[in-house]
Amino acid sequence: MRYLFAALVLAAAAFGTPAQAEKRVFIIANNSDGYGVDRCLATGASCGLPVATAYCKARDFVEAASFRKVDRREIAGTETTGSSARDEFVAIECLR
After folding, report:
1. Does the reported pTM lie above 0.70?
2. What is the tens place of the pLDDT at every residue in 17-38?
3. E strand or H helix at 95, and its extent?
């Protein structure tokens, strides 16, 4: 009887915990075509969340958890040169 009780407790612990949502962060250029990144995400305009969510859905994710401007120095493997719009990036965290 103890073994059955132990098995039930173990099964409840294994299957009773909520599933972890899959997260992925996309780093995209400020001047990416088609999503309004430069107008909405990079400037912090009110249209930012719908634009970030559309970006996530286009990559088979459910929604955008967050978005923010990213300094070029935060991106591994890049050098900071120039100050053109091509040097500005946005990070979008998507949830599945």
Report:
1. no
2. 455 678 999 988 877 656 667 6
3. strand 89-95
- Residues 36, 30: Cα–Cα separation, whole Å: 9
Residue 30: how many other CB atoms lie within 10 Å: 19
Percentage helix, strand, coil for the chain under 3-state DSSP, each rounded to 5 = 35, 25, 40
The runs of H, that is alpha helices, within the chain are 2-15, 48-57
The H-assigned helical ranges of 1-62 are: 2-15, 48-57
Residues 6+ apart with CB under 8 A from 35: 28, 41, 51, 54, 55
Domain ranges of the chain: 20-95
Q: List Cβ neighbours of 10 (8 Å cut-off, separation of 6 or more).
A: none
Report how far apart, in Å, the C-alpha atoms of 52 and of each of 16, 19, 21, 66, 90 are: 32, 24, 18, 8, 10
